[in-house]
Design goal:
Elements lengths: L1 H30 E5 H22 L30 H16 L5 H9 L7 H11 L20 H5 L1 H5 L5 H11 L7 H16 L5 H9 L7 H15 L4 H12 L19 H14 L4 H10 L6 H14 L25 H18 L3 E4 L5 E6 L24 H4 L10 H7 L4 E3 L8 E6 L2 E7 L8 E8 L6 E9 L5 E7 L2 E8 L8 E7 L7 E9 L8 E10 L1
Antiparallel strand pairs: 1-3, 2-3, 4-7, 5-6, 6-13, 7-12, 8-11, 8-13, 9-10, 9-12
Helix pairs in contact: 2-14, 2-15, 3-4, 3-16, 4-5, 8-9, 9-10, 9-15, 11-12, 11-13, 12-13, 13-14, 13-15, 14-15
Length: 564
């Protein structure tokens, strides 16, 4: 009898141990997700293809139907070559952000991110352009995206380029939120920022989920509940449940509240039919995802037909769905014509490089966020990803913004911002042959002037920004045994002044203001002795440096080096 009882006790103990072990495994699984690295790569590639397909298909319709549904017979036909969207701002901006992360890692400062964005050479619009202009003018992040300096801060911009933040953060919404705080604040604030964090959050979930409602709800958890942005997404979800088979009815409800009601356009850069606000365009992303029912064609088409930014919105929708489906599951018509050697505008990335960089960053991100990379029974690598609740950023709205950070770039930082210069070398050749120009800013339209304040055929320059001057330079041999002088006329705009600095081999030979107090009739004659460099080769530099950033143009005439 004792043996029987002992046996029963042993068996019960073993069952308890096994049950406890199984329970522990279930708890661990609830705290972790597993994603084979090969599956990650397939889904990440699907996300990029979905983006490229959406923006390529919708490009002919962009902002041509505002406040109206695009008629079905006006939807463009898909052509496989449309996948090669290397010239689209919906894609090339995020390549700049990836490059910053590739070079400096996840701990890169927001200031370095701003310098890299300021040095981008592609065309930009709205919040992106305003943010980059601020950066180039010395307004450092986060102020570059603050409503006090950026009237487009609620626009769609970070939303259209935030896909990267989720594609390198599988199952890691807090990493996507953090990336928004670093890159989204270069140009956006409030709902404009939340739109990007929402998009990033959807991508994070799409690596593990094919139900688009679940994916949308995951993105919603990444934005503050009290924001108008969150209210809009909740509305779309509710209206979808009320009208699951009638997307156009839901569209009209969205349009009535978020297009026509001024309470939801309090920081719109335009109050008419045109609406580039993040909220309504994010609603149209969600429309494609929910009503598209997992079909790539329908997801893109419905998001496109909602109008407004009807290439960027289907790009986000197509990218999220493409991530959920994976590259290998996508219709061949979206992959057959991909030019793998095509470079995204003004970036070093082609398709293979992009895929490689994203995988590397994902590996770093998983480990950084407390996960790990294991090998399964077949020796294949697996991401083990911790499950954590999203920690949203603080609630802020553009029409009631918090204080500015008073953030400005230092002179050393400004010296690193060199893009945005205008090439006026052809004009310079006509005025001063043999001289070269660098860092000439585009303001006031620099170049040759037929006349300025009585002098004809003169050159006009402008500083690149508040701290980086425009420079005219020439390397010349100063003859021995002679007296040599550099002379020229320097002029100013009637409404402004500027600082003139003359250097030879780095030595400052002259510094003075060129303005109404020093220049009679807007011109002053400058003469600098170069005799101490006799018998040597000397690099001469003339600096057009800003003072208070108002009418800082420099005018030049009769630049010459004379030896006697």
């Amino acid at each position: 009898m004792r043996r029987v009882i002992l046996t029963v006790l042993v068996v019960c103990a073993m069952v308890s141990v096994f049950a406890g072990s199984a329970a522990a495994q279930r708890q661990r699984r609830a705290r972790e997700r597993r994603l084979p690295v090969s599956e990650y790569v397939d889904k990440m590639k699907g996300g990029w293809i979905g983006q490229m397909a959406g923006v390529g298909w919708g490009e002919p319709t962009e902002f041509k139907w505002n406040g109206v549904i695009i008629p079905e017979d006006r939807v463009p036909k898909w052509r496989p070559e449309l996948i090669n969207m290397f010239h689209q701002d919906d894609l090339y901006v995020e390549m700049t952000f990836l490059r910053t992360l590739e070079l400096y890692g996840y701990d890169v400062s927001i200031r370095q991110a701003g310098i890299d964005f300021a040095n981008s050479g592609y065309m930009l619009w709205h919040a992106n352009k305003a943010g980059r202009d601020n950066l180039r003018n010395g307004i450092a992040p986060p102020d570059s995206g603050h409503p006090a300096f950026n009237r487009c801060a609620d626009d769609i911009d970070y939303q259209i380029e935030a896909d990267f933040s989720g594609l390198i953060a599988p199952g890691l919404p807090n990493l996507a939120i953090q990336l928004g705080e670093k890159f989204g604040r270069l140009m956006n604030y409030g709902d404009g920022l939340y739109g990007g964090q929402f998009v990033g959050g959807m991508y994070c979930e799409a690596f593990f989920e094919t139900d688009m409602l679940t994916v949308v709800e995951a993105g919603l958890r990444c934005v503050p509940e009290g924001s108008q942005f969150a209210e809009c997404m909740r509305d779309v979800i509710r209206w979808y449940h009320e009208n699951p088979d009638d997307w156009q009815k839901t569209w009209h409800l969205i349009n009535e509240k978020y297009q026509k009601n001024p309470a939801y356009r309090r920081f719109s850069c335009d109050k008419g039919d045109f609406n580039i606000d993040a909220k309504i365009n994010a609603a149209f992303i969600v429309m494609g995802l929910l009503y598209g029912k997992g079909d790539m064609d329908q997801t893109i088409i419905i998001s496109m037909r909602c109008g407004q930014d009807s290439d960027c919105n289907p790009s986000n929708a197509g990218g999220v769905l493409g991530t959920a489906l994976g590259y290998s599951a996508l219709d061949g018509k979206f992959k057959s014509a991909l030019n793998q050697k095509g470079k995204f505008s003004h970036t070093p990335y082609d398709w293979p490089t992009l895929v490689s960089v994203c995988e590397k960053l994902a590996r770093d991100g998983v480990v950084r966020e407390g996960g790990r990379i294991e090998k399964d029974g077949d020796g294949q690598e697996v991401f083990v990803i911790p499950v954590r609740r999203p920690r949203t950023t603080a609630l802020e709205q553009c029409w009631e913004p918090g204080p500015i950070a008073n953030s400005r770039f230092t002179e050393e930082e400004m010296a690193k911002i060199t893009m945005g210069a205008t090439d006026i070398s052809a004009a310079l050749k006509k005025v001063a042959p043999g001289w070269v120009v660098s860092q000439c800013g585009p303001d006031m339209g620099p170049g040759l002037r037929d006349e300025h304040a009585g002098r004809k055929n003169v050159l006009m320059t402008h500083p690149l920004n508040r701290t980086v001057p425009c420079v005219l330079s020439k390397t010349a041999a100063v003859p021995a045994g002679k007296k040599t002088k550099l002379s020229f006329w320097a002029g100013h705009h009637p409404g402004g002044d500027w600082d003139l600095i003359v250097k030879a081999n780095g030595d400052e030979l002259f510094k003075g203001a060129i303005g109404e107090k020093t220049a009679k009739n807007n011109w002053t004659f400058v003469e600098v002795d170069l005799s101490k460099y006799a018998g040597k080769e000397v690099k001469i530099e003339l600096f057009n440096k800003a003072t208070e950033w108002a009418w800082e143009a420099g005018y030049w005439d009769a630049i010459q080096i004379v030896s006697q």
